[in-house]
Design goal:
globular; Immunoglobulin-like; Chitinase_II/V-like_cat; five-stranded mixed sheet; 9 helices; TIM Barrel
Length: 458
């Protein structure tokens, strides 16, 4: 059947009228919507308070806070600083005359129902940076999701923020987004404790283990292109200058045997040299991080860059498949072999910084292991942060393995003592921890404190 033009016109008019009616009904419903009502006994909720329960500021700044409260109608507000009420409005601001540590509490009361939040407040004095003395380096890496609350500044010498992600295929060639970290105040706080803060540049990182994504050469592809390389270096240096950072670490983590041209890798390491600044504190560190295993040779040019202050060597991710598995993923033999390998590349011993993972490897293999291989090992294993391992066994710090399923292998205090002793015996540069987000803040069980003490640091 063929519709005539007049019939089609009538249908379209009716259809248009129907749409208009539906739109009017929806609009009417929106107009008639009322604001939510709250019972008198409902708890007033406080939104956007930092999960770390920490505020850090410079003494030259003014503290300004204003959080969303719901329901806020009829509510009373109190800001309490060190047990003294200093404000009774929802918003709060204060200028401090000097630095110091404080406790800040925000109390909301509505119809006798109270809710509150408390935080540690650190006001940093604007004093000259003075690096702490140390015997050997303890280099702590902090992931993009980390905060100042994850960092034990008393037991590290250098803090590396990981990472500015370089991706040739991304619209944003260098991603320097560190949501929630409050990087400027983190740097000020670290500097006040005598700790240098550096930026790591890398490809995409698989967390928590710190590996590059398999077959992803986006970082290498970017720096292998002259125009992109220039933009990468300029972007990194601007970000470093804007945030008063003390160094740059290059982690060409997305490497596979034969995939990278080591000659071009060496050219990139050297291409950065002319752009290196003096640093905000009279010293700017230039370092590299390298994975272990069969890919080491691809990055060996780092050993020949004399300006390179040290190389962080990831002596972990050595998990295996049956019949060899389960096995430690951060074995002592790998730690010592990698140190010897990089020395053979020409890297001075005092520039070798060996890696300690704050992550363990958990095996839960099937009864029939004949079908387990590299392609499906992920189905029968998992990475676990060190602080999570401590929830399984309060004495886990005294061991290197938990007998859970087919074993959780990790570096506890015994492994740290053994590796630290090797560093001292061989006069290596120190130890690095990947990443401190996964360490514990309990100093009696902490990995960074165990490393710092074992290396003979004051």
């Amino acid at each position: 059947m063929t519709l005539k033009y007049e019939d089609m016109k009538k249908i379209m008019i009716r259809y248009t009228l129907l749409l208009t009616m539906v739109a009017s009904i929806i609009a009417g419903c929106v107009d008639e919507a009322e604001n939510p009502t709250f019972a008198n006994d409902e708890v007033p909720r406080i939104f956007d308070w930092p999960t770390t329960n920490m505020f850090t500021m410079d003494v030259t700044d003014t503290l300004r806070l204003d959080f969303t409260v719901s329901p806020a109608d009829g509510a009373d507000f109190k800001w309490i600083l060190d047990d003294e009420v200093v404000g009774t409005e929802k918003s709060f601001q204060k200028k401090f005359a000097e630095g110091g540590a404080h406790t800040l509490k925000f109390v909301v009361t509505r119809n006798g129902v109270e809710n509150s939040r408390s935080a540690a407040l650190t006001v940093i004095e604007n004093i000259p940076f003075e690096p702490k003395p140390y015997n050997k380096r303890v280099v702590a890496f902090l992931s993009r999701n980390g905060t100042l609350a994850n960092v034990d500044l008393d037991h590290i010498t250098h803090l590396v923020i990981t990472s500015a992600v370089v991706n040739a295929a991304s619209e944003t060639l260098v991603d320097t987004t560190f949501t929630g970290m409050d990087l400027k105040n983190l740097v000020k706080t670290a500097h006040s404790a005598g700790v240098y803060v550096m930026l790591q540049a890398s490809g995409t990182i698989a967390q928590p283990q710190g590996a590059g994504l398999y077959g992803d050469y986006s970082f290498y592809n970017a720096v292998n292109d002259p125009d992109m390389q220039e933009e990468v270096i300029a972007t990194l240096m601007k970000f470093i200058a804007d945030n008063d950072l003390d160094g740059l670490d290059i982690y060409l983590n997305n490497t596979s045997e034969g995939a990278l041209d080591s000659t071009k890798v060496g050219k990139f390491y050297r291409a950065i040299l002319p752009s290196l600044p003096e640093g905000p504190n009279g010293k700017f560190f230039y370092t590299a991080s390298v994975p272990g295993g069969w890919t080491s040779g691809q990055l060996r040019p780092a050993a020949k860059v004399s300006r390179m202050d040290w190389v962080n060597i990831h002596g972990f991710r050595y998990e295996d498949i049956p019949p060899n598995a389960p096995t430690p993923h951060s074995p002592y033999w790998a730690f010592t072999d990698l140190a010897a390998t990089w020395e053979s590349f020409g890297l001075p011993k005092n520039k070798i910084v060996g890696g300690i993972p704050a992550v363990g490897f958990h095996y839960f293999l099937p009864d029939d292991v004949s079908g387990v291989g590299w392609g499906n090992l992920w189905m029968y294993t998992a990475y676990e942060g060190y602080k999570n391992i401590l929830t399984r066994d309060a004495n886990a710090h005294t061991k290197n393995k938990l007998d859970v399923d087919d074993g959780i292998f990790y570096d506890g205090h015994p492994a740290i003592q053994e590796k630290a002793q090797y560093v001292l015996d061989q006069n290596l540069g120190g130890l690095m921890i990947w990443t401190v987000d996964n360490d514990t803040q309990d100093e009696s069980k902490s990995l960074v404190k165990a490393a710092y003490t074992a290396l003979g640091n004051p």
